[in-house]
Amino acid sequence: MNKIAMTTPLVEMDGDEMTRILWQMIKDELILPFVDLKTEYYDLGLPEREKTKDQVTLDASYAAKKYGVSVKCATITPNAQRMTEYNLTEMWKSPNGTIRSILDGTVFRAPIMIDSIHPAVRSWKKPITIARHAYGDVYKNTEFRIEGKGKAELLFTGEDGTAMRQTIYDFECPGVLQGLYNKDTSIASFARSCFEFALGSRQDLWFSTKDTISKKYDHRFKDIFQEIYDNEYKTKFEEAGITYFYTLIDDAVARVIRSEGGFIWACKNYDGDVMSDMVSTAFGSLAMMTSVLVSPEGNYEYEAAHGTVTRHYYRYLKGEETSTNPMATIFAWSGALRKRGEKDNLPELMAFGDNLEAACLDTLNQGIMTKDLSGLAEGIETTAVNSGDFIAAIRKNLEKYYA
Ligand code: NAP
Ligand code: MG
Predict the structure, then answer these.
(1) What is this structure's pTM?
(2) Does ligand 1 come within 6 angstroms of the Cβ of 299?
């Protein structure tokens, strides 16, 4: 067959450990035989980050901004143990943090669903996408341990010297204290990314905060979403037949559990962190969770939601067979190739993204699965295979679409 052509390169960010091994297998078996692949390659593996003093992460992030579509392998975020393991001169920052701060985006996470794996919540029939605001709040907090009696105050000094001051609490005993912030600009980007994603995927958008208790902070989030919706998106949503819906987070939690799924749930940073873990676990497996960072300028960075699967990698290094699930990483590639095709108006490349995903689902529906899934599947006879055999089975199914 003639390989599918590309025009603009995809920004390819390689990574670490088991996912780096899967990355190469996916390219060799599922992409390169079908697509005349054009990428601008950045090695975000920890050895290269160390060698370049993390310059490679910055270069990759700016390339992601320049070209608009990127695909990323999971990477190690160094901690003390990794400093010794990899002989690091510095505890390099999380690559995802660096990429997010340069692209300024919102992270959308959605589960890949198959018939034989039933969500823990019986009513869920369609995926629930969590949109997490990836800036500020408790992740950029300032906190004190209060050792004894004293007065805590909130003070803001404007550029012109005018001050706002208020007592937070008169401590009569030891305690704790925390300061949080967010910015209108970041909240507005979050809102626009969510509205764009909802339109692009034709799904309703829900947004929830605790505005009844946080009457200024959370209320500001609610107001910004509403203003942007009314001024920029109301007509477009009506034309697309989708809705925007705000509710209190308590109410949202109850409605999500009773729902059928099939919508986007936008959450503040902390809510999104916690709820995405809950939703992905309830859908079945972290290895089946896709993740895409969407910037307000319309740049897309695709990845798997899981990490580098270190435990499997150590077994792999000892020569043992591993059954690591490549689904989320394959869907990062299919998502990125389809988006590249959409931006460059290449229908064949878009179709390839669809076919690759369909071939993955066909394979799972044939009962061929990695071990993490074979234990969960119901109503189907399963064969647990290693990663290589699983990818080979997907290849066979993919070839049928191009026979
Ligand atoms: P992890 O790599 O997601 O793995 C945690 C466990 O989940 C695994 O040991 C495995 O369980 C299961 N699992 C995850 N993905 C799987 C897959 N594809 N197939 C089968 N099982 C899978 O998280 P971690 O061990 O906490 O973190 C490892 C490294 O990844 C850390 O260095 C961390 O910094 C990094 N990390 C990177 C990202 C990212 O780049 N986006 C995100 C999270 C973590 P069993 O061992 O029980 O089979
Ligand atoms: Mg979390």
Answers:
(1) 0.90
(2) no
Report the separation in Å between the CA atom of 272 and the middle of ligand 2, taken as the mean of its atom positions: 8
> 106 in ligand 1 pocket by Cβ < 6 Å?
no
Give the residue, out of 17, 306, 386, with the most ligand 1 atoms within 8 A of its beta carbon, to mutate for a pocket test: 306
The pLDDT value given to residue 73:
98
Does the beta carbon of 268 sit less than 6 angstroms from any atom of ligand 1?
no
Confidence of residue 171 (pLDDT cuts 50, 70, 90): very high
What would the mean pLDDT of 223-235 be, rounded to a whole number?
98
Residue to mutate (ligand 1; options 19, 86, 309; most atoms within 8 A of CB): 309
Cβ(281) to ligand 1 under 6 A? no
The 3-class SS string of the chain reads CCCECCCCCEEEEECCHHHHHHHHHHHHHHHCCCECCCEEEEECCHHHHHHCCCHHHHHHHHHHHHHCEEEECCCCCCCHHHHHHCCCCCCCCCHHHHHHHHHCCEEEEEECCCCCCCCCCCCCCCCEEEEEECCCHHHHCEEEEECCCEEEEEEEECCCCCEEEEEEEEECCCEEEEECCCCHHHHHHHHHHHHHHHHHHCCEEEEEECCCCCCCHHHHHHHHHHHHHHHHHHHHHHHHCCCEEEEEHHHHHHHHHHCCCCEEEEECHHHHHHHHHHHHHHHCCHHHEEEEEECCCCCEEEEECCCCCHHHHHHHHCCCCCCCCCHHHHHHHHHHHHHHHHHCCCHHHHHHHHHHHHHHHHHHHCCEECHHHHCCCCCCCCEECCHHHHHHHHHHHHHHHCC
386 lines ligand 1 (CB under 6 A): no
pLDDT of 1 above 80 = no
Sketch out the chain's domains with CATH numbers. 1-112+300-357 (3.40.718.10), 118-140+183-283 (3.40.718.10), 142-179 (no CATH)
Model pLDDT, residue 360: 97
- Closest CA to ligand 1's atom 16: 287
Average per-residue pLDDT in the chain?
Answer: 95
Whether ligand 1 lies within 6 angstroms of the CB of 286 is answered as: yes
